[in-house]
Specification:
Elements: H1 3-25, E1 32-38, E2 41-50, E3 53-58, H2 64-119, H3 124-133, E4 148-149, E5 155-156, H4 159-170, E6 175-177, E7 181-183, E8 186-188, E9 192-195, E10 202-208, H5 214-229, E11 238-242, H6 251-263
Parallel strand pairs: 10-11
Antiparallel strand pairs: 1-2, 2-3, 4-5, 6-9, 7-8, 9-10
Helix pairs in contact: 1-2, 1-6, 4-6
C-alpha cells in the first residue's frame, strides 16, 4: 500500500476518533474549568461565555463532582485538539502531494502523446484510456435511477458505486460503467468493467449493496454462478464487494482492493 493511501486511512481513523470525542463532549457540563494553585491546594473556577462577556464563578468544595466532570471535559478537549492538529497536517500534506501528482501526470501524459504522435510508440496506459472512451453497449433500463454524479460527468445508481467510480478515477484506472457483457446467449451489465492500465487484463467489479435481503441474495448467487460458468472467478478477474444495513462499504476497503488488483501488480 502506498504512503498516500496509508495517510488517507490514517485520516479516516482520526476523523472517526474525533467524531467519538465530539459526541462525548456533548455530555459534559457547559463552560471551561480554570485551576489556580493556592498555598498547598488548588482553587477551581468555572468560566462561561455569555451575551455580556465571560462570567467566572468560583467553585466550592461541595461542587467537587462538577469539578471532576469539567476536568474530564478538559482532557477530552485536549485530545480533540491534538487529533485536529494531526488531521490538519495530513490534509495539508495530501493537498500538496495531489497538486504535485497532477502536474507530474499531466507531464507524463504529454510525453506519451508526443511519443505516439511523433514515433508511433504505443503505451499500455494510453490504450486503456482509449478503451474507456470508446462507445460501448450500456444498460438502458431505469435510467432515472442514475441520479448520483461521479467525477467524469457520468451518473451512477448508488453512493457506494460513486465511491468505487471516483476512487478508480483518482488512481487513473480506466473503467466502463454498466457495459454490456455477453454470457452465452444473454447480455448482462456489470457495475464496472475495468482494464488494467499496464497489463490490459479485463476485470469485472460487482457491488452487491443489498445482500441482507433474502431475494436479493438468491439472485446474487445465481449471478455469481453465471460468472463462474463463463470464466470469471473471484480473486482473479472478478471483484466483489458487499453491503447491508449494518456493514457499509468504506473508502478503506475500496482503496485496499484497488491497490491489490491494479497498483501493486
Amino acid at each position: 500500500m502506498g504512503d498516500k493511501n496509508v495517510l488517507e486511512h490514517t485520516l479516516e481513523e482520526l476523523q472517526e476518533e474525533l467524531n467519538v470525542l465530539t459526541k462525548e463532549l456533548e455530555s459534559y457540563p457547559p463552560g471551561r474549568l480554570k485551576v489556580y494553585p493556592y498555598k498547598n491546594y488548588f482553587k477551581f473556577s468555572l468560566e462561561q461565555e455569555t451575551a455580556h462577556g465571560v462570567e467566572r464563578k468560583n467553585l466550592k468544595k461541595s461542587e467537587r463532582p462538577l469539578v471532576r466532570e469539567l476536568l474530564k471535559k478538559e482532557w477530552v478537549m485536549e485530545q480533540s485538539q491534538d487529533l485536529r492538529r494531526k488531521r490538519d497536517s495530513i490534509e495539508l500534506y495530501l493537498r500538496q502531494t495531489r497538486s504535485i501528482r497532477k502536474r507530474d501526470i499531466a507531464q507524463s501524459d504529454a510525453r506519451k502523446h508526443a511519443a505516439q504522435e511523433l514515433f508511433g510508440m504505443e503505451f499500455p496506459e494510453m490504450r486503456a484510456i482509449r478503451w474507456a472512451e470508446e462507445d460501448f453497449p450500456t444498460n438502458t433500463q431505469n435510467p432515472e435511477d442514475r441520479r448520483i454524479p461521479i467525477a467524469n460527468g457520468q451518473r451512477v445508481r448508488s453512493k457506494s458505486e460513486q465511491l468505487i467510480a471516483d476512487s478508480l478515477r483518482a488512481n487513473q484506472i480506466p473503467f466502463r460503467y454498466e457495459c454490456g457483457l455477453e454470457l452465452g446467449s444473454s447480455t448482462i451489465f456489470p457495475d464496472f468493467t475495468i482494464m488494467h492500465p499496464r497489463t490490459g487484463k479485463i476485470f469485472i467489479w460487482e457491488h452487491f449493496g443489498m445482500i441482507g435481503d433474502l431475494n436479493y441474495r438468491k439472485n446474487t448467487f445465481k449471478k455469481l454462478d453465471r460468472y463462474w460458468s463463463f470464466g470469471y472467478f473471484p480473486s482473479d478477474n472478478l471483484i466483489m464487494t458487499f453491503e447491508d444495513q449494518n456493514h457499509a462499504l468504506t473508502p478503506r476497503t475500496v482503496n485496499a482492493i484497488i491497490n491489490e488488483y491494479f497498483l501493486l501488480v
